[in-house]
Amino acid sequence: MFSNDGISEGCALVPPVKQTKPTWIELVKKQVETRKLNGAECAIYSKKEGDNVHPDTQCICGRLAREHSYTGDPKIEFRSAQKWKSKLTTPKKATHYGQLKGGARFIRCDVENDTFEILVQIIVDDVVDKPKLIVSCYGGAQYFSMTDNLEREFMNGIGQVATTKDVWMLTTGLNSGVSNLIGQGVHRNTLLNENTWKTIVIGMSHWGIIPKSTREALKQQ
């Protein structure tokens, strides 16, 4: 039986479901599960028995030999390598990704070949808008020195650039040198200006360069 307004008795109109934007974790997980986004780990040293090497031997990846998680046959022929290359690694599933309490996103993954393009697309989907300007500011992690006045001017200037709408800032993401000043500048400008947009600062570094305490903390997320 139908009522006069044409709606079946006993039924109710259901409001349209509002679509929500996928979270960072959902965006990454989708690409990981389809094997489009992969991880990689250094294979120069291994936990496998028989790899008789001093545990405190420094690896080109930035970690000590004993800090490696690889369990296969080590690529001992590359232990004298002077430059990092993708052939020093072995592929693995990307498992370290998430979002910190403060909102910062993170991921440990391979950035060779098509993987980097996929990672960029994930960032674009998460931010929603593409950048109109990308500023890359690397270097200065070691032997870095400035006068107080120059350091203050640099911090204020780079902070203003990084917090400008539609600008992406690329750094090492490390708490040292230029990257540290950028972080301070961004924090200061964010507090002083009530911008309606989010500041986008992307830190990119080798996993082994990140302090061990930070690596362990990210693994627990």
Keywords:
3-stranded parallel β-sheet; alpha/beta; single chain
Cα-to-Cα separation, first versus last residue: 56 Å
Q: What is the N-to-C order of secondary-structure elements (H for helix, E for strand)?
A: HEEEEHEHEHEH
In total, the number of domains comes to 3
* Physical arrangement of strands within the biggest beta sheet: 5-6-7
Q: Would you identify the regions where 5 or more consecutive residues have pLDDT less than 50? A: none
How much is the average pLDDT?
85
Shape: flat
For the sheet with most strands, the description reads: 3 strands, parallel
Strand content: 5-15%
Class inferred from helices and paired strands: alpha/beta
Q: How many strand elements?
A: 7
Helix amount, in percent?
25-40%
Oligomeric form: single chain
What is the helix tally?
A: 5
| Cα radius of gyration in angstroms | 23 Å
Protein name: TRPM SLOG domain-containing protein
GO cellular component, one term: plasma membrane
Organism: Rotaria sordida
Domain TRPM SLOG: 104-213
Commentary on this structure:
The chain has 3 domains: 21-37 and 95-128; 39-93, no CATH class; 130-210, no CATH class. It contains 5 helices and 7 strands, in the order H-E-E-E-E-H-E-H-E-H-E-H. The protein has helices at residues 24-33, 114-127, 148-162, 177-192, 212-219; strands at residues 38-42, 89-93, 97-99, 105-107, 133-136, 167-171, 200-203. Helix 1 (24-33) packs antiparallel against helix 2 and helix 3 (148-162) packs across helix 4 (177-192). The protein is flat.
